[in-house]
Amino acid sequence: MSVDVQDNKDQNRFEARIDGQVAGFAEYVREGDRITFTHTEVSVEGQGVGSALARQALDAVRAEGGLVVVPRCPFIKGWIEKHPDYQDLL
Q: Is pTM, for the whole model, over 0.70?
């Protein structure tokens, strides 16, 4: 199963898609040099969709450069805590 994650800037969220269908999303608020992740939902559990969503969203933030991540969402916060190589984004 391939998970494609895209930034849907119109809805302020990263979306995880499987076969073109939204299987999860991570909502955010951008203010200046901060991106605050506020809420994450995944409709397919136990198949790595949430992890792919978090990793690819944070990779996109890193690639953009200059942004500080504020993980208010418990899922994103927990994921970063388990993956210390992403803590530099905080």
A: yes
